[in-house]
Design goal:
Elements (H helix, E strand, L loop, with lengths): L2 H31 L7 H23 L3 H26 L4 H24 L25 H5 L5 H19 L1 H11 L1 H6 L4 H28 L10 H11 L4 H20 L11 H16 L22
């Protein structure tokens, strides 16, 4: 196997696994840049995965080949609505944001498994037939070397995720909306005195995190697991959270970190087909993404300055 083929396999699998993490990490960036800690990214991915699979199975005959894409919108809508529970608890009622996020994770898993048992009378859904497949991008895949590396056997969702990271960067750093959102996460009192509605901005940010978290879960379920059960989302939300911190709360940094974690996840899938990894025990490759997540957060990222008001409820009029 030549080096070009090996690189093509690694890049293709890494981007494939990274797409759900990128979407979810970008959702975390929105929420935490506005000052709201969102440990509930795991739960948002779970509810997105559940919604997408159930919608896909229910409406596959109606939408045909477009079913996976329509399912994404359903998952985004439900994820956004579900995240408002976290917003209500942490912004309106000023509950501990970490505790609220953990509650979201438990609620999402418990509710989705209850509904799966109720709808399908078993512990998991059926396997979907309409899913996201790896394809060769027309024209671009014919480019010498680059085409084989980046546009061959790839998923459209991966390119959408990377493109969205640049869109989020532009929105946060080049638009008035982004400036207001970052202001309420850094100094909400100053933002309030300038006429910015802190509560409204934080609600919008948490809602966007739910939309993108649901999208991440939907992409994962329809491209990797292809069904929904208790083991569909097993730590991917926390990896996305780690990618956001690893990327220092910056959209492009979060994207880069998510691709890194996607690479770690892909090793367990493609390791047996890569010459220098084929003799490594599978258990080590399966553990690699979690070990790398811990190492990344244990001091290998340098100084990571979170938004100054992160985790602090805003009480109007308080100094």
């Amino acid at each position: 196997m030549d080096i070009l083929t090996i690189l093509s396999i690694i890049i293709s699998s890494s981007l494939f696994a990274a797409a759900p993490l990128i979407f979810t990490a970008l959702g975390g960036v929105f929420s935490e840049r506005a000052g709201v800690v969102n440990i509930g990214l795991e739960g948002l991915m779970i509810i997105g995965a559940f919604t997408a699979i159930v919608f896909n199975l229910t409406f596959a005959s109606a939408f045909g080949d477009a079913t996976p894409w329509v399912s994404l919108f359903a998952a985004m809508a439900i994820g956004g609505l579900f995240s408002l529970l976290h917003a209500l608890a942490s912004i309106t009622f000023r509950a501990d944001q970490v505790v609220s996020g953990v509650a979201i994770n438990f609620l999402a898993l418990g509710a989705s498994l209850f509904l799966v048992k109720l709808i399908y009378d078993k512990g998991q859904t059926d396997i979907i037939k309409m899913n996201f497949k790896k394809v060769d991008i027309p024209v671009l895949s014919d480019i010498p070397v680059i085409g084989k590396l980046f546009f061959n056997n790839i998923s459209y969702a991966s390119f959408i995720a990377i493109g969205l990271a640049f869109v989020v960067w532009y929105v946060l750093y080049k638009t008035p909306f982004g400036l207001r959102l970052r202001a309420v996460g850094e100094h909400p009192m100053a933002a309030d005195t300038m006429g910015i509605n802190v509560t409204k901005m934080r609600y919008i940010a948490v809602f966007l995190s739910g939309v993108l978290g649901g999208l991440g879960g939907a992409v994962y379920a329809q491209s990797i697991s292809l069904d929904f059960s208790h083991a569909t989302i097993t730590g991917q939300g926390f990896m996305a959270l780690a990618a956001m911190i690893f990327g220092k709360w910056h959209p492009l940094g979060a994207m880069g970190a998510a691709i890194f974690f996607g690479f770690a996840q892909s090793l367990s899938i493609v390791g047996s087909s890569i010459p220098f990894l084929e003799n490594v025990p599978a258990v080590y490759l399966l553990a690699a993404p979690y070990v790398l997540t811990i190492l990344a957060l244990a001091g290998f990222i340098g100084r990571a300055d979170a938004p100054k008001a992160l985790g602090t409820p805003y009480i109007k009029g308080n100094r």
